[in-house]
Structures are given as C-alpha cells and as structure tokens.
Design brief:
Length: 626
C-alpha cells in the first residue's frame, strides 16, 4: 500500500464545540493525498462522539484513544504512527483554510526546502478576526507576496519565527527522531529549536492559511494557572539548546526570547499572588543566567518596570465614605489591562480609610491601601496619597468615575515611552454611551484651527488657563510633581492649583485625543461642583494657588490670569448650584465687590466661549457682549 504524501496529526482533548469544524476543514482540503491521525487524549466531554461523527466513513482518518498524556504525549503518538513523507499538525480547536495542504506542499515541492510556515488568522468568538504573519519582527506581510526563504543561520534569526507546530509542514527527514517533551506546557519551543538546529532556512508563505480559535476557555496560552512556571523549566531547556555549536549568538538570542516569553506569560496572569511570584521567578532566572534584567524597546515600558520591581502606576482616590461611587471606580480599576497598579484610598479618618480599602479589595483590586489624610477635603487627601505613592506615574481618580479597560495601559506606556511629565485626556461627561465628549480644554480655539491629535502637545499660559482641570482625566510623572513642589489646594477648586501648575511646568505633555474616562455626573459624586460657594472663597482659592506656585510659574502667567479663572468659577457656581433668587442677588453683589476690591473689574478677557450673559455682564459691566 502506497504511503500518503502528508500525515496530519490532530490531538484532541475536551474540545467538543470545535472538533467538528476542525476535522471538516481537514476533510475538505483541496489536497487529498493525506492521512489524519486523530488522538483522543482522554477527553471527558463529548469530543469522542463528535469527532467520529465528523469523520464519518472517510478512510483517510484513524482514531487513537488513550489516557490523558497531554498535548506533547498526543503529538508523540502521532509522530510514531505517521507514514507520510511530510508531516503537519492541527490542534483540535483550530481549522485549516481549504488550500492549506495544497499550498504548503507545493511550496516545499518547488523549493526543495526542509519545512514551510504560513501566516495565521486569529478567529474570535464574536465573529471578528485578524491576521499575523507568524514572524515576530515582521507581523504584517503582503499575503499575495508568495513564498520567501528566511535564513536561520543564527539563533537570533531562528527566534524571529513563531515556534508553533501547527502552522508548518515538515519534511519527515528534518524531524526524524524528534519528539515533544512531555509533562510540561509550552512544549513547541524546544521541538522548534531542535528542528531549526538541523537546517539553515525556513520557507514562509504569508497567506493566513491556519485559522486559530482565540479566547476558548482552557487554552494553555490564556490559562492563569501555576503551570505558567513551566516556562522556567522550558527556558532551561532552550538555554542548553542555544548554547550548542549549531548556530552563533545564542546568549543574545536567549535574552530576547526569555524576555518575550516572560512578557507573553505575564499578560495572562491576573491572580496578584501568582503574578508577583512569577515576576520574582523571572527576575531570578535572568540574574542566574547573567542576562539583562530589562527587556528591549519592543516590550511595553510598564512591563519593564514591573519586571525590575518598580511600580509603574499609582491611582489615588479621595473618598468621602459613600460606598457606591468607590465601588464603581474600584471595579473599573480591577478590569484594567494595565497590571501592577497600586491603589490608594484616602479618607478623612482611619476607620473610613480601612473600610474603603476593604471595599476596593472586594471589587477585585490587589492589596489596596487605606490612608488617613492629615486634613479634611479631597485636595489634602490627594496630597496625602501622593506622599505615600510608589508608582512612577500617578493618576488622581474621583470616586464614581469609570476608566475604560485599556485607558491606564495606553496612558502609562505612552507617558513612559515619551518621557512625558503630564498627560491630558478627553473624557465622557457622564457614564452613558451617548454622553458628550469633553476635549479637555474650555476653549479649543486656543489650540489651533484643527483639533489636536494624540501625541505631544505644546503648552503655554493661554492653554494652561483654558485647561479643564478635572482630575481623573490626567496622568502625571510623580517625580515631576515632587520636583516642582506641585500639590492640590485645600479649598474649593483644589484641582486648579495642580492642573494649571503642572501644565505650565511640564517639559513635555501628551494629549490623548480619545475619551478614556466616564465622569460621574450624579450630584453625590460632584458635590464640589454644586456647592454654594461665596465669591470671596472663590477668590481666596486663587490666592492659595498663587502662594503655592514657584516663581517660574508666576512669571509665566499673564496679568489677567486671576480674573479669567475667577470668571470661570463664578459661572460654575451660578450654573450648577441651586441658588434661590435672593441668593443669586447676593452672589452678584459679593462678586462685584470682590472684582472691584481686587481691581479685576476693568481687566479684559479672553473668557471662556460658553460664558453666560449674566456672568459676562457682571465681570465686564461696561462692555458689550462679543
């Protein structure tokens, strides 16, 4: 009996919802001269029945049932049974494109290469998909470009390719005698390196011919399990392989590979204790091998900080004791893709602070700290948090606000990559999908004729005075705040003091032209904005800011800076506080008296473009409305 051209090895374990489509994609291949060795590796679900239903009477398929030995054990059984001149692998939850075997076989036949790899299409549960070339250093390639022979003369060139078994077709002669290491996860790497040590090239087809299911429960690559520590064991094996004489540059390549694998494993670890232990194990392994403790620039800078034991970000939340607003914000922090966040809950007394930390922990945050402020109010609470924070960067979040899941990761890595002191973001005014977006400045005309894009944003005094100082939509470099002595105020509008001061002091600021935050607009979450504050108190807040700012900030301010901010404060109280007619009359009287006493009345604008007629007439009594 003639042996088939290709043997396809299909390990199956508890993939009942996918195995039918997997085997159907193999049955429907345009290249028909193959055998399929299907290994049921001790499935406990309905996979055995469904795989047999999918195979039907097709004699090209043989089924082997065994007790569970793991993916490596199943593949090894297939290798021992395979009769084909060429060998391929197909995981039981994935699929081949109809032309997979045809195009891969033709490429090897025409080139004479030892093996060929193809591009990948990731298939998501929501029906979406994306592609990857399966080459780390060139993730996007023209799918119509045709086959290309990639050199494997150094280990650095080898590790540029996905080590996966499933997107390749091998000549039997290349892998004769090779087997997968059993009893461990991440088994593909060692098999791939052993095969690569035997050849000097890898043929590559950029077509996404392999369809990989993503997001399936139980997948090894997404499992938050202690078996992640198998990566250390596998790296020991890889280090021995790359120290061999077959190819040069083993140490350099090992460092790159180790950092890539530690990062890939780290991104799936959400259990705080396991993540901490894994980071420690990674640091120890790198040190024991004499490899660089920090990854290269291809890894996110926040991960580099975490790996070396530095906290990337502190989030400080002043809390007045209301449970629901804190629970909302803590929940969104627990859902952030940015890991390694330090959370500080700051209240006016120790008991409330401890209760806030317990509530945040219940919401899923890792070891939130409760701190007692030395003075009452949100401004002093934020300052207390800043003195205790350990993060390279700091965000001051208001309880009740929601941060969208990728917000902190995008802010943090952008700030670290650009060595920025300050980040300013757009935000939703409300916690609804249709909430309006605030662009972050009260007068966008001061930023130019075109809306600013995400990236560096030059700042000046006019732009600083137009800044919306809403705290949650800002991110600061902690050392920058400390170096300039910038702090929140103690009274009303305490965020103006640090927001404007930071804007005038920052050497480099970034603008995020997308809304990363949903502000809580409920009255209980915005009591500072709805409070009936006297005009004299609003003016005193500007005195406090002036006294707190260093001389360089004072020198940068125009002469009318105080009136511009005072006018905005008057408008906010007038617009958002529930003032009776009698209170409005008194408010006007006191505001005019303050304007006259401080000699602000006769100063000109510019003023915020939305200023109401009532307030405009109050601050410029002799001027017509523009």
């Amino acid at each position: 009996m003639t042996s088939p051209q290709i043997s396809v090895i299909v390990p199956v374990h508890n993939v009942q919802d996918h195995i039918g489509a997997c085997l159907t994609s193999l049955r429907d291949q345009s290249f028909t001269d193959f055998e399929a060795i299907v290994i049921d590796d001790g499935s406990s679900d309905d996979s055995p029945a469904r795989l047999r239903a999918a195979i039907g009477e097709d004699t090209r398929f043989q089924v082997i049932q065994q007790e569970n030995r793991g993916l490596s054990g199943a593949r090894n059984v297939g290798l021992n049974k395979a009769k084909g001149t060429f060998i391929a692998f197909l995981d039981g939850d994935d699929r081949y494109a109809p032309e997979f075997l045809e195009h891969m076989h033709a490429a090897l036949a025409q080139s004479g290469a030892d093996w060929v790899a193809c591009g990948l299409r990731n298939m998501y549960a929501d029906g979406g998909s994306d592609t990857h070339s399966t080459i780390h250093d060139a993730p996007v390639l023209d799918p119509d470009a045709g086959p290309c022979l990639w050199p494997l003369s150094t280990w650095d060139e080898v590790i540029a390719h996905f080590p996966s078994a499933w997107n390749k077709l091998y000549r039997r002669s290349l892998i004769e005698g090779l087997h997968y290491d059993e009893g461990t996860w991440y088994e593909d790497h060692a098999f791939f390196l052993r095969a690569a040590a035997r050849t000097q090239t890898l043929l590559h087809l950029p077509e996404p011919l392999y369809l990989q299911t993503r997001g399936r429960a139980g997948q090894i690559t997404t499992s938050d399990s202690d078996q992640v520590f198998d990566q250390i064991t596998v790296l020991d094996t890889l280090a021995d392989l790359m120290a061999g004489p077959e190819k040069p540059d083993g140490t350099q390549a090992l460092a790159r590979l180790a950092h890539r694998l530690f990062y890939e494993r780290g991104t799936i670890l959400h259990d705080p204790d396991r993540r901490t232990r894994f980071l420690t194990a990674a640091r120890d392994w790198l040190a024991a091998r004499g490899l660089p403790p920090r990854p290269g620039p291809e890894r996110p800078p926040s991960w580099a900080l975490e790996l070396t034991g530095t906290c990337p970000l502190s989030v400080i939340i002043p809390w007045d004791g209301q449970d629901d607003p804190l629970r909302v914000t803590a929940t969104t922090l627990a859902q952030q893709s940015q890991a390694g966040i330090e959370t500080l809950i700051v209240a006016d007394d120790a008991a409330t602070a401890a209760r806030g930390a317990a509530l945040a922990s219940e919401a899923g945050l890792h070891e939130p700290r409760g701190l007692c402020s030395d003075r009452p109010g949100p401004g002093p609470a934020r300052n207390t948090g800043l003195t205790q924070a350990q993060g390279e960067l700091v965000v001051f979040a208001d309880a009740g606000d929601r941060l969208l899941p990728d917000t902190l990761a995008r802010w943090t890595d952008s700030m670290l990559r650009d060595a920025a002191d300050l980040g300013l973001s757009q935000f939703h005014m409300g916690r609804r999908e249709d909430s309006p977006v605030h662009q972050g400045f009260h007068d966008m005309a001061l930023l130019g004729t075109e809306p600013p894009e995400t990236g560096p944003l030059p700042l000046n005094a006019d732009r600083a005075l137009a800044l919306h100082c809403y705290p949650t939509a800002k991110i600061f470099r902690r050392s920058f705040l400390n170096a300039h002595g910038l702090r929140y105020g103690c009274g009303t509008r305490s965020d103006w003091q640090i927001g404007i001061g930071a804007t005038l002091s920052a050497r480099k600021a970034l603008y995020f032209a997308w809304p990363g935050v949903e502000s809580a607009e409920a009255a209980e979450c915005r009591q500072l904005w709805t409070a009936q504050i006297a005009p004299a108190a609003l003016a005193q807040m500007l005195d406090e800011a002036w006294e707190s700012w260093p001389q360089d900030i004072r020198d940068a301010l125009p002469k009318n800076w105080a009136k511009r901010l005072y006018t905005r404060a008057l408008w906010e109280v007038w617009s958002f506080s529930d003032l009776s007619p009698k209170q409005r009359s008194r408010f006007r009287f006191e505001a005019i008296r303050e304007l006259r006493q401080r000699r602000w009345l006769w100063q000109s604008g510019p003023f915020d473009p939305y200023l109401s007629t009532a307030i405009y007439g109050l601050v410029t009594p002799s001027a017509p409305r523009p």
